[in-house]
Amino acid sequence: MERMAARAQTILLDMLLAAIAFALAFFVAPTQPELGFGQDGALSFFQLCAMFAALAGIFSLIFQRELSPWRYVSIPDALVLARCALLTAGVFLLAVFVLDRAEGLPRSTLVMAPLLQMFICMGARIARRAQHENALESFSPLQMASDRASPASSLLLIGPSSLADTYLRGVARSHDHPYAPVGIIGTDRREVGQQVRGVCILEAIDRLDEALAEEPGKLKGLTADLLGRLKNDGIRLLRLPSIVELSQHDGVTLLPMRDINIEELLAREPIELDRHAVGDLIQGRRVLITGAGGSIGAELCRQVASFNCARLILLDFSETALFEIEREIRETFPSIAIKAVLSDVRSATRTTAIFARERPELVFHAAALKHVSMVERHPTEGILTNVIGTWNVAEASRACDARQMVLISTDKAVDPTNVMGATKRLAEAVIQAQQSTGEGCRFSAVRFGNVLGSSGSVVPIFKSQIERGGPVTVTHPEMTRFFMTIPEAAQLVLHATATCHADERRDSRLFLLEMGEPVSIMDLAQQMIALSGRRSIDVEITGLRPGEKLTEALLDETERALPCAPKVMEVVSSSALRVMPTHLEALAATVESGSDEDIRNALFDLVGQIRGEKPGAQPTLRVVSGG
Fold first, then answer.
1. Each residue of 228-257: b (16+ CB within 10 Å) or e?
2. 248: nearest Cα among 353, 329, 320
3. CB 374 within 8 A of CB 335
4. Are 282 and 309 in contact (CB under 8 A)?
5. What is the enclosing helix (H) or strand (E) of 519?
6. Is-contact 447 431, C-beta < 8 A?
7. Angle 323-329-334 (CA atoms, 0-180°, nearest 5)?
8. Are 613 and 415 in contact (CB under 8 A)?
C-alpha cells in the first residue's frame, strides 16, 4: 500500500507540474481571451487545464514515470519526459478540436505548453537529484570557503574518466566523505585538462611521475615497483571493489574503497557470470556447506546467502572457524535462516543423522585437509578426512534425497605426487563413481588451482615474511602455479553447479575452471616485495619439499576437457577403475592397522589403478574371527 501511495504521489506531482506549465503558456499567450476564461460556448480555462493535466498523468502512467526516482534522473528520463509532453500536447489538441474546435485555446499555448512542461518537470527532477547529491551545499552564499574545505584526506583518482565519474557520483550521494578528490590521472592524454564533476584530469597514466610532482598530495598500466614507491612516499593506495565483490552487494550505491593488494596485479579480466542461473539454483532452497569456516567454504556461505537461500546449514569441525562464519553471516544477512553444526565429516553416523535432520537440497563439500606438507606427514588424517569424509557426505546426500552434491577439488589431484593430491584424486573418483537415477541426488566435482589469500596459501606466507623483514622463501626459481581469487573461485563453483543443475543428465560430472596462465612463484615474490616498497628484502631458495611439483596441470593423461559454459569446462575421463565401497573399506582397514608407509602404498596403489598405471582388481577382505 505504501508503495502504491508513493507511485500515485509521483503521478499527481507530474499532473500538477503539467497544469502549471499549461497555465503559464495560456496566460502569456498574446491572443488570449479576456481574463483567459474562454469565450461563449467554448471550454473554460479550468476545463482546458484539467484536461491537459489529466492527459499528462495518463502518459506519465503509460511510460511508468512513477518508477523512475527523481533523485536518479538521467538523460534517458529527459527523453521520455519529452515524449510524454509531445504526446500530451498532440492528444490534447485533438480532444479540444473535437469538443469545441479549439475556440477558446490560444494557438501559441499549444507550442509553449509542452516546452514548459518538459522544462518544469525536468527542472524539478534535476533539483531533487542535486539535493540528493548534496550539490547545492557548495553554492550556499552564507558559507565561507574555509567552511566548505573538507578535512578529509586528499584523494588522487587513477583510471578511466568514466569510472572516475561513477565513483564521484557515488561520493556525492554519500553523506560520509572520508576522502576529498583533488585530481584524476586518466588513461587518455586527449582528456588532460578536462573536468569530471568538478575534478580536473591532471595527467595521463603514462606520465604519472610528472603528475605527482605537480600535484602534492584501471590498475592496468601500474607496476608493483611504482605502487611500492608510492607507498614509501606516504601515499595510501586504494581501489574500488571488483565486479565479483560488487555482485554480492546488490543495491549498494558505494562500497568503501580498500587497499590494493597483490590480487589486483595477478587477476585476469573480470568474469561475467550468469547470476540468473545461479539464483534459480539457490533461491528458496536449503543449502548445506561442509568446511564452512575455511577460506572457500566461508566465501561460498557469503555468496549462497546473497542469493536468498531458504536455509543455510554451516558444518565445520573447527569451533573457532564455525563461530566466526556464523557470526558474520548472521550480521550480514539477518533475514537468512542459519544453523551452525559442529561436527566431523569423518563420522558416517553423525553425518547421516545431520543430513537426515536438516534435509539439505544442495550440498557443497569443501571440508578437507589441504596443506601438502602437513598431510604428507600425516597420511592417515588426510585419507580419513579427504576420502572417507567425502564418501560419508556423498552417502548422506543420497540418503536425504538432496538434489545435488558438489565436491571442491584441486589441481593437485592431477597426476598426484603427494598424499594430499592423491587423496583429492581419490575423492574425485568417489564422486565419479556415484550414479543417479530418476529424481535422485546428482553428483559433481569442481577442480581449480591455488586460491590467492586462502589460509596457508603462498600469498599470506610471503606477506608475513615481508612484514618481518624477510627473507622471502621460494622453493624453486622455476616453480609456477595457477591462481585465482577467493570470490572468483566461489562464484565459478556456483556457476559450474548451476550448469550441472540446468540439464537433464544424471551421471556424475567433473568440472574444470579456467585458470588462465600459470604464474611464476618467483615473480609473485618479487612483485609482493616491490608492492611493499621494501626493496632490501631478499628472496631465498629453499629447495622442493617432499611431494612438491615444479608445475601443476589441470588435466591428467586419461582426461580431456570440453567447454560447457563460459570459463567452465567439463572433464571427460577414461578412468581404468571405478571405485567401489570395497576399495574404500580396504583402504580404511589399512589406515586402522598399517604404518604410514603401508598407508601411502595402499593410497597410491589405488590411485594408480584409477589412472590405469596398474591393473585394477576388486579387493578381498579377510575377516579375522576371535578379535
1. bbbbeeeeebbebbbebeebbeeeeebeeb
2. 329
3. no
4. yes
5. strand 519-520
6. no
7. 125
8. no
Cell triple for residue 417? 605426487
Q: Is the pLDDT of residue 212 over 50?
A: no
From the CB of residue 467, how many other CB atoms can be counted at a distance below 10 Å? 10
Looking at residue 384, the DSSP 8-state letter turns out to be: I
pLDDT digits (tens, 9 = 90+) for 462-484: 888 888 888 999 988 888 887 77
Round to whole Å and give the CA distance between 90 and 56.
11
Q: How many CA atoms lie within 13 A of 406 on its CB side?
A: 28
Least confident of 226-235, 305-314, 508-517: 226-235
Alpha carbon dihedral 196, 200, 202, 203, in 10-degree steps, equals 20
Which conformational region is residue 467 in: left (phi greater than 0), alpha (psi within -120 to 50 degrees), or beta? Answer: alpha
What DSSP designation does 218 have?
-
DSSP string covering 311-379: EEEEEES-HHHHHHHHHHHHHH-TTSEEEEEE--TT-HHHHHHHHHHH--SEEEE------HHHHHH-H
| 59 C-beta neighbours (distance < 10 Å), count | 21
Q: What is the DSSP letter of 507?
A: B
Residue 510: CB atoms within 10 A of its CB come to 24
